[in-house]
Design a protein that fits this description.
- By secondary structure, the chain is an alpha/beta fold.
- The protein folds into two domains: 7-77; 81-504, Spore Coat Polysaccharide Biosynthesis Protein SpsA, Chain A (Alpha-Beta Complex), CATH 3.90.550.
- It has 17 helices and eight strands.
- It has helices at residues 7-19, 33-66, 72-77, 81-116, 147-155, 177-187, 204-212, 233-238, 262-284, 300-305, 316-326, 347-374, 380-390, 395-410, 419-434, 436-449, 461-482, and strands at 134-140, 164-171, 195-197, 219-224, 228-229, 246-255, 296-299, 330-341.
- The chain has an eight-stranded mixed beta sheet with strand order 3-2-1-4-7-6-8-5, with helices on both faces.
- Helix 5 links the parallel strand 1 (134-140) and strand 2.
Length: 504
Amino acid sequence: MQARQPVAHADTVHQAALAALPLDAPPTQGASAPSVHVKGAEESKDLRRTQQLIKEQIEEARLRTVGKEDDPLLLRQGPGPGVWVLRVLTLMLYGIVLLIMIYAVRHMVFTLNRLFGHQRHPYLDIETAEWPAVTVFIAAHNEEAVIADAMEALLDSDYPAGRMIIMPVNDRSTDGTRDIIDRIAASRPDVIRPFHRTEGKPGKAAALKDATALIDTELFIVFDADYVPGRGLIKQLLAPFFDPEVGAVMGRVVPLNPGANLLTRMLDMERAGGYQVDQQARMNMKLVPQYGGTVGGIRVAALNSVGGWHDDVLAEDTDLTYRLLIGGWLTAYTNRSECYEEVPESWPVRIRQLMRWTRGHNQALARHVGRLLTTRGIPQREKVDGLLLLGTYAMSPLLMLGWAVTLVLFFFDSMLPSPGILLVMALVCYSAMGNFAAFFEIGVACYLDGSGRRLRILPFAIFGFLVSLVTIARATLAQSLLEPFQKNKALHWDKTKRYRGQAA
């Protein structure tokens, strides 16, 4: 781009050019008076036309050299509506880039903490203790394909006899779930107490709310029906509750079917990054580990102190995480407490899962962001981490908006921000879609798991990130436009498709 010259230079050229133009040409000697008059008039018209043409060319050159935004004539008139729109878009772009950079730095900090920071596993050594009585819920709705595996795995637990009650929470299943539960329960009536729910509000939170009212233990653990817990998992999940400040505990989720196809392998790495790095780093740094709604335990006193289960929410786990945080309770994460789940094996199922998570997380953002920021007694580091965690799903639509704003400003070069901010936008936009920081996080998680061979398919993760980006943005937009008109819409069970065959 050519360097701009000061306004005075253009005006000087203008004046010099006009001064050089003759206003009256002398008549030609020897010509008659009438011919001189006619010829002089024609020359005068030509001169005026030439003068006007030169004026227009000088004005065009001046604006091209000075730039409209520096033109004193236009500045005296004030910026028009279009200029204000471009200025707002520019400020918006700066804000979006700042947020994206914050999240990229967050990824890097968590990853480096897992590599080089102090690792906190405060409850890992608790193996022998006076283990408390506990109720284990298995949330089920039309789970005939998987419910038997979960029940039989829990029956094989090494938890002390007489201290654990297994309660399958069968919420209005219309398949063979009830028959399978009753058949297994008949073989162990001392341990299994089925709860067949036939009425009330639909949904997991509503079902757990009714089930919690039936128990007399101070602690309970929740599993979704497709999870397969290991023998020592119950003890591992209950160990943190010896700390009276702990209100909830979360274990690690590991895919059961990573070898099904490319999608499941990518989700396996994504889960590793989320738990092995994100959750454990939060635990290390005393931030906000998230209760995930399954493979987790709850202290009944903590739940009651924050109002019990809310059956009008889309993501009861995220909702409860923030109510416990605001209520002064700790959530502990135990990285060694692994439990196995099925992950989606097809893209349509994965997209529906993401849309469900997005709506629930955004609802939690709207409900809790104000209280999180204004509640006293929460450490600032937890407030910052909690705020960033709440805003995770909002970043996808903001990123796409940033791309659109950048394209608009690109075609209005006089309003374009500095090249540095566009460079950051380009680099960190790549970061948020296929984020080097996120790739780094996933790579480190695989390294910590001792399974480096998984990294061979890491480049394919950029496609998964792109699908997630578009899906989350779409769900957020639809929720923003439609939710105000659907306040009275009833909730229902919305679960991921199961792939295992029905147990005999």
